[in-house]
Amino acid sequence: MEKVSLNVIGMSCGHCVKAVEGSVGALNGVCSVKVDLKAAKVDVEFNPNEISLDKIKETIDDQGYDVK
Asked: Which GO CC annotations does the UniProt entry carry (predicted)?
C-alpha cells in the first residue's frame, strides 16, 4: 500500500467532502480516503498495482477541484 497527502484547492463544505471521498473511494485499488477541509488536503491510501496516482488526481479534478 502507498499513502499520499494531496493538496486540493476549492473544497469548502460537506458536499465537497462527500464528492471527493465518494468518487475517489469508489475507485478500484483505493483502500481509504480522508478529506481535511481546514488543511485543504486529501489523504489517500491505495494499491499502486491496481491504480495510479495520476488516475486518483484525475478523479479529484473531474469533481471540479484542483490538485496541486
From this structure: cytoplasm
pLDDT in tens, 2-31: 999 999 999 999 999 999 999 999 999 999
How many CA atoms lie within 13 Å of 4's alpha carbon, on the beta-carbon side?
A: 16
On whether the CB atoms of residues 1 and 47 are closer than 8 A, the answer is: yes
Q: What residues does each domain of the chain span?
A: 2-67
Q: Which residue has the cell 494531496?
A: 6
Strands of the chain, DSSP E? 2-9, 30-36, 41-46, 66-67
Top-level CATH class of 2-67? alpha beta
As a residue count, the chain comes to 68
